[in-house]
Amino acid sequence: LLHPAYPNWLLNLKRFAHYFYQISKHSSVRLLALQHLTKIFKTYHTIYSEPIIRTLFSIFHETLERETCDEVLVQALRFWGQMLQQSSCPAAVMAIELLSKHAKQEKQATAVAVLVEALHVKWTQSQSIHTIKIYHTLVELLNHPLESTRRVALECLTQIRSNKTYQILLDGVRSSFLQLDVSTKAPVLTRR
């Protein structure tokens, strides 16, 4: 039922995850569920990138809300780190935007921090206009209500702006996209 050949397979995927949280009191079972979700993502993410990201985000958000076992939380964070590493840049940006908007507690902010660092890695792998989208996303996180999220975004931006490799990447992108809205009071990337 969790194969794309079946109707409503993404809905089935959601129900699969909810099922384990409703019936299982054992963290080992939830870890197995996360491993299964990871396998599904690795198998189908290139074909169904955006819908899978949205579905798994919903599942992951539930993990953060309900999970009491640190081991399961760590596994979930690793899973999302892997997801960002393997996703296309647009899907990666969408994931970080979705999660950052929902992060209201420090536990969730830790997840955002992990994802921001993964997004930072995506910056180094991309040589297209998506690099600018990633940069804008990091800048927007400077206004996030959680201090820890603002801090990790600032650290990533500092690395981006101080590394010559990133400057070379940006030279390959149209300069008109490098200017940010002045109303955001965010730093503007300048060429050196």
Walk me through what this model shows:
There is one protein chain. The chain is mostly helical and 192 residues long. The protein has two domains: 1-87; 106-192, no CATH class. Helices cover 71% and strands 0% of the residues. It is built from nine helices and no strands. The protein has helices at residues 9-23, 27-44, 49-66, 70-86, 89-102, 106-125, 130-140, 147-162, 164-171. Helix 2 runs parallel beside helix 4 (70-86) and helix 3 packs parallel to helix 5 (89-102). The longest helix has 20 residues, at 106-125. The model is unreliable at 173-192 (pLDDT under 50). InterPro entries: ARM-like (IPR011989), ARM-type_fold (IPR016024).
Overall pLDDT, averaged? 67
Radius of gyration: 18 Å
Q: How many strand units?
A: 0
Low-confidence stretches: 173-192
Number of domains: 2
End-to-end C-alpha gap: 54 Å
Shape: globular
Fraction of residues in H or I helices: over 70%
Structural class: mainly alpha
Task: Please report the number of helical segments.
Answer: 9
Mind describing the biggest β-sheet? Answer: none
Strand content: under 5%
Task: Encode the helix/strand succession as letters.
Answer: HHHHHHHHH
Summarize the structure.
The protein is mostly helical.
Task: Quickly list its features.
192 residues, mainly alpha, 2 domains, 9 helices
Question: What is the fold's blueprint, element by element?
Answer:
Layout: H1 9-23, H2 27-44, H3 49-66, H4 70-86, H5 89-102, H6 106-125, H7 130-140, H8 147-162, H9 164-171
Helix pairs in contact: 1-2, 1-3, 2-4, 3-4, 3-5, 4-6, 5-6, 5-7, 6-7, 6-8
